[in-house]
Amino acid sequence: MFKGHWEDGLKQGTGVYTYLNGGRMLVGDYVQGKRHGVHTLMYPNASCEIPMEYANDTLVAHNSVHFIEDLVYEGTLLNGAYHGQGMLTYPDGAQFVGTFDKGQIVSGSGTFRFADGTSYTGEWQKGKKHGYGTFYFKGATIFEG
Q1: Where are the alpha helices (DSSP H) in 5-143?
Q2: What are phi and psi of 47, to 5 degrees?
Q3: In a 10 Å sphere around its CB, with 0-12 CB exposed, 13-18 middle and 19+ buried, how is residue 141 labelled?
Q4: pLDDT tens across 41-94, in order?
Q5: Which residues, listed in sequence order, are joined to residue 82 by a DSSP beta bridge?
Q6: Distance (Å, rounded) from C-alpha 66 to C-alpha 23?
Q7: What is the tally of structural domains in the chain?
Q8: Where among 15, 35, 56 does a domain terminate?
Q9: Cβ contacts of residue 88 below 8 Å, gap of 6+?
Q10: Is 106:93 a contact under the CB 8 Å cutoff?
Q11: Using an 8 Å Cβ cutoff, are 118 and 136 in contact?
């Protein structure tokens, strides 16, 4: 739901967009219906404000936090997609820390921590475990190689 000024049927100027799922609010400027400039993302019952920079309705901020459908991403964004080094946290608490390209886990080293405490640290190729790595289960090494 958008609250703000409209011009010729398009959002124009400073406004507040409230998401229907959870009440998150995005406050910032709109130019001809598109998000533009630095917006502030706020969560109900949270004491943080997250700056997010848009250009022509595309998220372009770097080193920001990006929330989509209960996923939390911390790291670099490029054209609104996860890009470069970052950390992606899933709704169940699982996390991947490593390299992303156009929103996908890519080749290189990284760590995936499952919600149950199991983790894999090692090499990845095209988003899959590949090459040398180590599995840990609650602090004990269970497989290395």
Answers
A1: none
A2: -100, 35
A3: exposed
A4: 877 665 556 778 888 988 876 555 655 556 777 877 776 677 888 888 888 888
A5: 77
A6: 16
A7: 2
A8: 56
A9: 71, 72, 73, 82, 95, 96, 100
A10: no
A11: yes
The length of the chain is 145
DSSP string, 53-93: EEETTEE--SSEEEEETTEEEEEEEETTEEEEEEEEE-TTS
Report field, pTM of the whole predicted structure over 0.85: no
Q: Answer yes or no: is 144 within a domain.
A: no
Spatial CA neighbour of 83 closest among 109, 110, 56, 63: 63
Does one domain contain both 110 and 52? Answer: no
Among all chains, which residue has been given the structure tokens 């109900």? Answer: 44
Domain around 109: 62-139
Q: What DSSP designation does 138 have?
A: T
Confirm whether 145 is domain-assigned: no
Q: Which long-range contacts (CB under 8 A, 24 or more apart) does 115-122 make?
A: 115/90
Nearest CA-CA partner of 36 in 15, 6, 62, 5 = 15
Is residue 48 domain-shared with residue 66, that is, in the same domain? no
For residues 27 and 70, membership in a common domain is answered with no
